[in-house]
Structure formats: structure tokens, C-alpha cells
Predict the 3D structure of the following.
Amino acid sequence: AWLPPEAFRAIGSRRTLVHGAGLLVGTVHQEVEQACARFGGTVRRQEEAAGDICDGTFDLVLALSAPGRSTPGAEAVSAGLREEDGRPLEAIGDEGFVLAREGGVTVVLADTPAGLLYGLFQVVRLGESAFDRDRAAELHRPAVRRRMLDHWDNIDVHPVMGQVERGYSGGSIFWRDGGPRGDLTRVRAYARLLSASGVNAVAVNNVNVHATETRLLTDRLGDVADLAEVFRPYGIRVHLSVNFASPVVLGGLPTADPLDEGVRAWWAEAAGRVYEAIPDFGGFVVKADSEGQPGPFTYGRSHADGANMLAEALRPFDGVVNWRAFVYNHQQDWRDRSTDRARAAFDHFAPLDGEFHSNVIVQVKHGPMDFQVREPVSPVITAMPATRLAVEFQVTQEYTGQQRHVCYLGPMWSEVLGFRPWGPDAATVAAVAAGGSADGTAGGSPDGTGGAEGGGLVAVSNVGDDPYWTGHPLAQANLYAFGRLAWAPQADPLAVLDEWIDLTFVPLVSGDPEPLRRTLHAMMDGSWHSYERCSAPLGVGFMVRPGHHYGPDVDGYEYTPWGTYHFADRDGVGVDRTRASGTGFTGQYPQPWSEVYESPERCPDELLLFFHHVPYGHVLQSGSTVAQHIYDTHFAGAEEASESRRHWEKLGASGLVEPMLYARVLELLDEQVRSAEEWRDQINAYFHRKSGVPDALGRLIP
Ligand code: BDP
């Protein structure tokens, strides 16, 4: 994983001062100490100010700027730095840091211990260049305050979903066979990796809260406290997914009605006990009235009633409720063409805007359906200006190759975060997550400054007890990229990819790292598009094997109650979601996108079949027809998989990768090639037969 000891060479061979008090400052000190033990440098820990930190005694100073106590040399470090609006910098802010050269010393200055820790990891990323003579001073602040990973981990092995729901990396790092794992060494290592990527919150159990997991809230709370203890020194708060029916299931009450006094008292008491055990506990995550989970609908109450009840229980302790908007009917009548799952979250939640308490965060999947390789941005993100919204991504590759395919998702998330749902002059999705308003003026700004309270960014983790953490070793890049993009949504996802390569593999190479760097970059930079070319075309989605969701099955979900259809027939394919003749989903978007998506001519090619049912001969903006596009992309997708494999083989021959890693990735690439060819053959054969349209290039279609 990233941060091998070798990545600390530049720090570990120098003289460092760690200045400040507190648990996280201790973590900073410990990190530097370990590096020095390896590379021969020295580190001094100093709690109180003593002497000028920039007098040249040290090469690197990591200092906490304690209010009311002056640190000689510190003022000079941030002098000259300005806020966005041109005012001189007064406070660095929670989690932020200043990195500057002063008097030949590299100085990291932070207002809080967390900021100091993030500053340390920035120095690690920079390596030798952190000590360049004429580095200009930089101010770093996270764009969104809450950067969270949700684990879909079960304590018991679930009969269908296993230990980790949608997990492709072995068992849980927290739980095993009905209990905690006991040895938390790996959790500590995980906390360190997350903190170096910028993540500061983790939910430790599945959103589908089964029987044993429900008890984490009460008699198994100690297990959660043990995890919180390990995450704490890395600035990460623990959250818990709770079962909405807990008062019934655990408390023996006759109801879980959110307006019932007894129920409210039960939750208030439960929350109180949680904070007694875990004073910095983050809050609850709730999946309610969705895919069989209990919720307020049972009692004729709204999602605002449900969420607010929990919010009131958490309020005295500053906790939040992450209430998921993934609510839809998964038992619909597939013969009824007027129903549309894409509409569901908006239909349920938009009318509730303004009703949620301020410590409720409505957590919205980034697309209206379910983490497909391509979806438009969810219109819910535009519909709730008076609500704190969090945007949810899926790092675990459920629909994007299940960590058998290389699929670097940074570019997808970056597109979503940078999307401007109100048009080119208004705010981005990232600004909404940061707490900005539609016109982009209020709250945090998406350019990495700001940091006002918004709902933040959340993602489903892809980590398990696999020796490489993520099954596919290259899938680690997705975990890293999520954290980095949550910190700085405007960052170039390909630069983040290079950063990950540099922090993970390059420190281990003794000779010239360039061939390694180039090859990994080439294998990964376009891999999301490549997976898109392999799988369901033009945004139509699904076409996967039911249940586990790996590999092609064009009609697998076509005649089922899940609401995930493509409507292919002999004449055409795609879902008509227009106002004019379809489900009216396009009407959930503000202008200009509502009009753009409504029009088959203006709708972006990659989303055409998400919004329109068109004939196979329909000409795309690219100039190709739908049928020809399907053939071309699927031939290309399979070819790209083989090319990726050739790259890797060549790298193996160069001896730049360690043999075990080489073998693991090669084996996975074999599967990727097989799978991409299977996709190619099934999708092409299906549409060739349905449409009767020949391939213009006369290639073999089975
Ligand atoms: C879907 C998964 C399912 C999750 C659900 C969710 O298939 O396992 O429980 O999302 O987000 O993508 O709740």
C-alpha cells in the first residue's frame, strides 16, 4: 500500500522538530521517529514554545500555532498568504495547514493537531522537493469537512452477501465469524493509510443492519469503542449504521414509531450510552425503507420524522445522522412502463427539503440509479437547498469490474464533483457537498478553499483482509483517490493517480522508476472508459448477471421487479425518460440540463440510452450509429484489456515489480481479458441479432 517506510526517506534523514501537545501531535512525532530510526535523522518533540523555530537548528518544523501563545518564527511563515477574497490570512482553520520555507527551514504550521498530521503527509508526498530552497508558501484546506468511508461489513457471515457485502477483498478487517477480530494491528495500519489520503470518518458496519450488527448499538458497543480507539490517533471518527427498528428488536418496545415518546426516549438513552463509551463518536448512518430495511413508512411517518428523531437523540453530543436517500420500490411491476426507479429518490426527498434538522445529512448516491459505470448526476443534489447533502460514491467496484478488472474511478468522481447542475456559471456538485448554494457564493467553495459545513462526501470502502488490502492491488488507487478528491475536488484525477504511484511503488524501486511509472499510468488512466466500452452501452446500465452483478447478462434484470431496464427490441434500445413521451424524469433537472437531456440530439452520447429509446440507426453526435457504436466500443474494450495485459508482462520482464505482486496482477489481467471478451461477444451478438444491423467493418460477431 501507499506509505511504505521508504516513502519517508526525505524526512527520516533530516533534523525535525515536532512542536505542540495532544494525541495527534504524538502521532506526527511517532511517524517521524520511525522514519528517523530507519534513515538516520533526528527528531525532537517540544510541547511548549522555546526558541525561534526557524533559526536553522532544524530542517523541518511541524508546529501547532497555539492561540494566545506566540511561536517565534511562526508569523513569518504565513505572512503574505491571503484568503480567497484577498484579506490577509487570519486563521488556518480546522484540518488545514500552511507549508512554507522560512530561513532555510521547511515549516508546517497548523491550528489543530489534525492539520499538523495532514501537513506531515503532504511533506511525505513532496519528498525531497519539500526542501527545495525557493518553495512558495502554500495554504491547504479541505474543501469538505466530512470525508467518510462506509464499510458494508457484517459481523456474522451473511448467507448470501458473505462477510463484506459487495466486498471483493476477502473478509472484514474489523469483524470475523460473529465477533471482533481482536488483533487490531491492521486497523491501525488502515487508519494511517486513510488519514494520509484525507479521510476523517468511517462507518464500521453494513447499511443493511442484520441481527448481530444491530447489537453494536447496545451490548456490543465495546467492540465499536475499541475500533474508535485505534482510529482516534489518526483523526478519524467512527460512525455506526443502525437499524431503525432497534427499539423493537433490542428494546422490546411494541413500536419504532419515530413520534412515539417511548421510542424517542429509547434512542436518547442509547445515544447517551454511545457517547459515554466513545466521546468523539461521529453519528448514525441509516438505510431506511429501502431493499427490505425497516423505516418510518411502517408507521405512516415521513423520512424527515425518522431522521429528526435520531438527530434529536444525537444533538446534545454534536453527532450527525447520515440518512440515505437510496429509497425506491424494488418490487415494481415490470410490465408497467410508467414507473421509473430513477425518479424515486427525488420523489421521496425533494418535497421534504427544509424539514430536516441541521444535524441530519441526507446522503445521496451520485447517480439516480445505483453506481453504474455511467449515470447522470442525481437531480436530488439540486433539489434540496435547505438541507445538508452528502454525495455518495462506491469505491468497491460492484458494477465496475469487482476488483478483477483494472478500473480507476478517479476520473468518474472528478466528473461528478465538477459537474455544474445549474449550468456553466453556477456551483458544482462539490460545492453542494461543501455547503455552497446554487449560485456558488455561500459556504465552502469547490476550489479547495472554504470548508463551511456541508454534508460532505461519502464512499463505500473496497478494503478487506486481503494481503493487498483491495483484492486487486491496483484497486488501492481508488481508495486513495476518493480521499484526495474529497479533500480537493478540483484536483486532476490523473495527477492523483501519479501521486498514488509515486507514494506506493516508486519508493521501492532502486533504479530508474520511469518505466514503472509510465506503465502503471498507461494501464490505469483510461481504465474507467475502457470498462465503460466493455459493458452496458451509452449509459443504459445494468446488463449484469443478477445477484452478484459480475459479467454480462443483457436480459438478466429485464423482466424483474428491480426497475433496471433497457427495453431493447428489434427496432431500438434505451429508456424513454423524457417529459414528452416517457417517465418525465428529465423534468427533475433544473435548466439547462432538463432541456439538454430531453432532446435526443443534444443529450450527451454517453447518456443517450439512459434518457432515450432510439432506433439502432440513430446517429450519435460522434457520427456513428447506435448499433455501430456498440460493436466498435466492445471490440475496443476487449482489445484494451489485452493491451493492458501486454503492458504488465513487459514490466514483469524488466524486473521492476516484486514477483508476488506481478503474479497477482497477471492472474487478474487474465481474468479481465477473458471477461472483456465475454462482454464483447455477448453484447455484440445480442444487438446484432436483435437489430439485424451488420457491422460496417465486417468483424466476426458470434
Ligand atoms: C446496491 C448493492 C446493495 C446495497 C445497496 C445500498 O447492490 O448490496 O445494499 O446498493 O446502497 O448497489 O444500500
Notes: Residues 165-166, 207-208, 287, 291, 326, 370-371, 398 surround beta-D-glucopyranuronic acid (CB under 6 Å). Residues 147-498 form a domain with the TIM Barrel fold (CATH 3.20.20.80). DSSP finds 22 helices and 20 strands in the chain.
